Write the structure tokens for this entry.
Amino acid sequence: MKNKKTTFALLFILIFTLLYLVFATRPLGKEYHFEPEWETSILSPTEKPDSSDIHYFKLSNKIGYFDNHGHITQITSIPENHKASISENFYCVYPLNAEKTDFFNKTGFKCGTIDEAGFPYFIDDRIFIFLPGGGSVSRCDNNGKVLWLYEGIVPITSFASKTTSTAIGFADGTIKVFNTDSGEMTLEYAPGGSDQPVILGLDITEDGHYIASISGQDKQRFVLAHKENTQVKIVHHNFLPENYSSQCLVHFTEDEKTVFYNYKKGIGIYNLDNEKNTQIKIDSRIISIEESENMVFFMGKDNKKYTIYIIEKSNSLGGSFSFTADSAFICADRENLYVGKNNSLSKINISKK
């Protein structure tokens, strides 16, 4: 009996050793590595760009532009009790009671003056003004002259604009869609489903056919709607784990096959092709979304701790990294990620090894 026990023990050890050697020699899964290619200070003297790709930043009390090689091409300070708006095409600095706001292009050339009182908002080459009172918005041309005006009394709580369509969400839970050029309202609906209706975030596809939104309290939910002529069809909806009183970010990818959204302690991903909804737990409040060719980047904030989350186009969390700062931002182009922290900018190379 003793010999049998010894033989069994030796056989067990041999099998365990063989299995260990087989699995131990397998290559480990590849992980993302983040390496700065360059770092520059936004306080550096401005230079002429040596790249046609110009990006904007907003850090601390500064806004400006930089090229792919880290040259600061334009910078403007934001005085105390002032705000700023900036896009790839325009920027301005204005007081809280702004009237007759001058705005400039990325070279610093004055493009025009916005005569209306209100808060300028730039999206690419489009100029909007949110009027005092919070329920009205107008679109201006590239000289600052009003093209169209929507006047309302219900506070605007979310806003998204693409070349052909602009969507506005309101505190009463309604969503209105407008032709971006003419200002004609083409759709109005309410996602519903909650005791306290309010639109906390939304996005719209380029053709205006799909609108995604986060709405309501008790229970809060994500809703994907499809425009069918002048009617709307709810394609998908799901209730969220917890109520979130902050504004939420909603983002259709450039190919419009996926929509990302954030909620309290989570990132949601809905794939329009396979109709699959995925949710990923996170620890911070998402404040920015940027997209490259193969990845989507989320920047979260928890006090002074910022975390960059990387979501692969396969809809899985590829990795993350964190840092401490008083202010931060991210932007991305097709191949690169740029990270701003306090008074510095960095280009981050991302590799999978």
User: Anything to note?
Assistant: The first strand starts at residue 32 and ends at 41.
